Amino acid sequence: VFRPTLMTGIQPTGFPHIGNYLGAIQQSVKLQNSESYDKIFFSIVDLHSITVPQNPTILRQNIINLACSLLACGLDKPQTVLFQQSSVPHHTELAWILGCLATLNKLDHLPQWKEKSPSKEDVSLGLYSYPVLQAADVLIYRATDVPVGDDQIKHMEFARHLARQFNKIYSPVFPIPKQITSQHIRIKSLRDPIRKMSKSEKDSRGRIELFDSPDEIREKLRKAVTDLGTGGMIGYDSQGRPGISNIIDIHAAVEGSTPDQICSECAHLTTVEYKERAAEAIIEMLKPIRARIVHLRNEPQHVVSVLSKGNEIAAQNAAKTCAEVKKLIGL
Ligand code: ADP
Ligand code: NA
């Protein structure tokens, strides 16, 4: 029997945005507050972020900003272990071991390396084998549950496959981790509503970052791409009218309601008026988070000390699994 343990992560590739919050962070906070887990490992997955080029100064800054944001969102309970992936060497050690069970055939069928590779002809080994490291991130803590977005379904299946392989060959050391995806919410870019809102989209006007000021949020909503629709009125049709539908999706998630409810409440508004209404709802939701980020940014030593405590606890737990695994293999 394995203790209920949650593991999740986020890349320090930029400032977290409302898509990260509504699609992942908020759910982790709820799961944390449900008190149903012994431990919650929340990893700033910096080793994943370097699968594509990063500027060292900016990366270092992004790691601290992400830690501030996660704390500001409420991931600060005693059972929550907030830590930096690269400070726990057992992730890469287990990744090597799991990599010896992973085949090229399996990896070829995982979608992300093709999407993220800067070159079509060649791909870095890190980007290609990234799902193996992701499996190690989860298995090293013997996590039973993993809250991630639905873009991660294939990767989670692969992690389960590796856990089963290892358990079958050696001994059942790993639980088979479950993916938890409560709401299948996928926020799109405000500038390009066909693509997901992402930290790594070049045009930052496409995303609402957790630290954006009310005026920046108003401006981004005003400039959000929407069609003229039927007489400039709003309507929900994610295929035909992706821009306005995306804003309705964000608004519904922010209000904890549904696109249908939003549409009937706001049926009398023009698209322009509606975007102002949605902006105010978003500003309201982000207000306390932003205030806490401001506060934490003025206390960098506090954030650094939370991280180093987290790094220590994560390493202790990971070391145990790693030692057991190596012994079983004969290392
Ligand atoms: P990004 O693409 O912004 O760099 P990450 O790859 O670091 O995001 O993902 C962090 C978490 O946020 C994952 O669980 C992912 O599923 C979720 N996520 C990322 N972008 C979105 C989005 N646009 N809508 C909903 N969830 C998202
Ligand atoms: Na990304």
UniProtKB/TrEMBL annotation:
Keyword flag ATP-binding: yes
Catalysed reactions listed for this entry: tRNA(Trp) + L-tryptophan + ATP = L-tryptophyl-tRNA(Trp) + AMP + diphosphate + H(+)
Record keywords, A-Z: Aminoacyl-tRNA synthetase, ATP-binding, Ligase, Nucleotide-binding, Protein biosynthesis
Ligase keyword on record: yes
Entry GO terms, CC: mitochondrial matrix; mitochondrion
Protein localization: Mitochondrion matrix
UniProt GO BP: mitochondrial tryptophanyl-tRNA aminoacylation
Record InterPro entries: aa-tRNA-synth_I_CS (IPR001412), aa-tRNA-synth_Ic (IPR002305), Rossmann-like_a/b/a_fold (IPR014729), Trp-tRNA-ligase (IPR002306), Trp-tRNA_synthetase (IPR050203)
Entry's EC annotation: 6.1.1.2
GO molecular function, one term: tryptophan-tRNA ligase activity
CDD domains attached to this UniProt entry: TrpRS_core (cd00806)
EC class: ligase
SUPFAM superfamilies on file: Nucleotidylyl transferase (SSF52374)
Family: Belongs to the class-I aminoacyl-tRNA synthetase family.
Stated role: Catalyzes the attachment of tryptophan to tRNA(Trp) in a two-step reaction: tryptophan is first activated by ATP to form Trp-AMP and then transferred to the acceptor end of tRNA(Trp).
Protein name: Tryptophan--tRNA ligase, mitochondrial
